[in-house]
Amino acid sequence: MSVSREEVLRIAQLAELDVEKEALPELVDNMSRIIDYVAQLSAVPANGTVKVFVPGPDAIRFRADEVTPAHLAFGPAEFAPDFKEGFFVVPKLGQFE
Amino acid sequence: MSSSWETIIGLETHVQLRTKSKMFCGCATAFGAPPNTQVCPVCLGLPGALPMPNGAAIGLAVRAALALGCTVHPKSVFARKNYFYPDLPKGYQISQFDQPLATNGTLSFLAPERGIVTAGVVRLHLEEDAGKSIHDRFPKATAVDLNRSGVPLIEIVGGPDLRSPAEARAYLQTLKQLLEYIGISDCDMEKGSLRVDANVSVRRAGETALNTRTEVKNINSFAFVEKALTVERDRQIALIESGGAVTQQTMLYDSKENAVRPQRSKEESHDYRYFPEPDLPPLVLTPEFVAEQQSALPELPAAKRDRFVATYALSREHATVVTSNRAVADYYENVVRAGAEPQAAANWVMTEALADAKDHQEQLRVAPGALAQIVALVKGGTLSHQAAKKVFGEVAAKGGEPRTIAEALGLIQVADSNVVAGWVTDVLGAHASEVGRYKSGETKLMAFFVGQVMRASKGKADPKLAQRVLEEKLTAS
Amino acid sequence: MSDAKAVADRLVKAKRLNALLTPPKDLRKSLAIQEAAARPTGVLYGMPVAVKDNICTLEFTTTCGSRILEGYRSPYEATAVAKLKTAGALIAGKTNCDEFAMGSSTEHSAYGRVLHPLDKARVPGGSSGGSAALVAAGAVPAALGSETGGSVRQPAAFCGVVGIKPTYGRVSRYGLVAFGSSLDQIGVFGRSVHDAARVLSVISGRDPRDSTCEDRDPLRLPTVPESLQGFVIGLPKEYFPPELDPAVRRACDRAVRLMKELGAAVREVSLPHTPYAVPTYYVIAPAEASSNLARYDCVRYGPRFDGRVDLRGLYRSTRGQGFGPEVRRRILVGTYVLSAGYYDAYYKRAQQMRALIAQDFRNAFDRGVDLLFTPTVPSPAFKAGEKLSDPIAMYMSDIFTVTANLAGLPAMSLPIGRIKGLPLGGQLVGQAFLEDEMIEAAYALERVVPATDEA
Ligand SMILES: [Mg+2]
Ligand SMILES: [Zn+2]
Fold it and tell me: Are residues B264 and B325 in the same domain?
């Protein structure tokens, strides 16, 4: 197992995902296999001189500084799970505060 | 207790750039709109939306970097900073990480204890702002407003070069002045367009290594900078002196209690998982673009101050006051250009003009030409200093030409020696005993006689002329 | 010209495939409205085009095959969809797909698996399986899909239709729900090369809302060539390993012979870093996905599962229950490879390998090769459930397709024969922004290849 149970739980916390207890052993196994599999990349000698490849344009295009908001066919009240008095509403932040 | 301790402070300053539209979308940045009305798919983080960068924001960031003497990199890279927070719509902030816009600048400022200090600017990068979480709007719930989400910011990371809370304040003041000067931001801390976090550590005098530091956040007003850092410094010193150790953590400043407390957060060591933003190609700046930003920069405050010392023979102190603000400096120069003697103009700007501006929304209400005329009227003996202040106030409030107003108010000094001689005769006649004392050597009574003449003339007498006539009469008889 | 009712009827008839997520009632109503509004002068006037459910539309919900977007209506539409409508096409409903396009079988949809039109026990491929199946079933002449690692070409090969993935930056991604942003492109399915190509031509071209979309004119359609005289076709030897299914090899050999007969020169080439493509892909795509899928936090849209009192609890329950197992797995893998201490070993290494893979292609093209020809997939459509328990076996089905995504190159699949009645696809890989050459070759091959004959 290249990935431990504890690591999976730590990563799940970073990713804000609940992991059910029953699903954990299989998840640890799957993740370990995937990580072992992709780890073959490190078997290839590192080449620091390789230039990073980024697909798409070589440079950013600049937008003009004009107020041109993209159109919304309907407002947040229509798609938000909880929207009151113009605000998105969520439960208290709890441990965030 | 602090005499044997040294404080090490580095500031991270977030500055909102003065643009009409947001960093990556065309939504307005205007402050104070009803919640969630300046939003679109991009700044709401809707599925499928993509960022498109604002060229003006990039230009303003480059100007700030140049003004701070940074190396502006021809190629930099946007990166994602990943974390969950309800006002961070995409679950990541588009920022810059290992390839920032600019690095390695400096900011010189006048430190209260050490004189001129040159602090390092480690890096300056572009990023987008998050929205706003409001915790007291609804019971047991947090309200999220995303109008601010995506507003362009620069983050200026200062080196650990500040040695006291007062120094941090002076640094920040100088930085604010510089950024206002170059017009890239309104730097209003109350509106959140300038925010500062501080890294603070302490060490015993003579030590050179840096100790564990804490980050102080939530310093949301200029007045609190020094207070918050003092509290944190004292906390660290007390902790170490009682045998404890400082732990690396984030402290929140509570201005009501004037206290700091650790941020309640389970995952203290944030793992932001930075990686290059795949939705944006590299930020490539052509030499022409950078040159354009350079040429858009005005004369910077330090250069202006030095020039005022050289050109107008002002003291360094006066030049500093007059150049503290770009509008004031321009105003001063216009007063001088309109013919006022430079030192007198500086005196007027530093006192009457700034005091008046302070009471009137920073408006310099007396036109430079009018102030130059007032200065000239005083110099020529037409107005007493007291009278001139009255005229200034009148011009400020109602406008108009100073001489006309002075005449209308009957404030023109009488410089006719015959008329003055009449008042002098009256005064000497009414104060025979004082005349006697003067003649027996008590010459300091001259001030008293001048005062009496001014009183008799209802302030119209030219005081210098009055003194001359008094001297003549008192020695003649 | 097809009228709206006939279009809807055909789509509803294909219902057993579970390829369409739009309810028949909504579909009929919208098609009638769209038909009335369509511009008769548009080059696609009246053409029904089904759209993968990870592309934003105003007409229908956009769920990405996920519970976490159940019932979600986008308040804006994708640039590609807007361009289709401007050209007079009808948006013929939303097609089922692997959740957030993560998968190669369209079994990973919260709304059930899609059936292969020729054998219901088999998968149509994925992740754009719904689009491929509907075109193969004759319900629509063309459909939009999306590709991150072969999600158009692989199902096109499995279903026996044409699938094109354009050059990265050819089609705007605005409104395509992101999976792996540096790999994602909208692609097209067609019954024929022409159907696919003309839809691609309409959706291609510049977009001021996508920084990664090139500032270029739309793709110009080539004419059908008389021959392949002057074309140099490269056969990368890594794509024809000794263990390759003999029937797949036979079908490819036949296609190559036919291209030679049309005048093409054929040459063996080598793309030496090919063996590392799948592991490279399975680092970069999950890394980007872990970040792209952070926005599904049930703050601004989407349902909330399990009303725990504090927000962090709500995040975890909603994301834990809203995402399916494959998506959760990839988010975790992506989070892992980006996390402190692992970034250099995985993500950075994969970035370097990606550069080497892209360089392999440049080297081949620099040596005078115009196009590459390979099998699209090493095998025909597999049985449902066959690879579900083994994620790596599933990933290997992308082995011949992920390279074009990593290198950002245009590539397409077209039917070149069958094994035991199941379609096989041949893949053409072109040079960046030379889709026209690739399509020209495909036109010529399509005319001569016995696409439905056993190989
Ligand atoms: Mg920052
Ligand atoms: Zn916006």
Answer: no
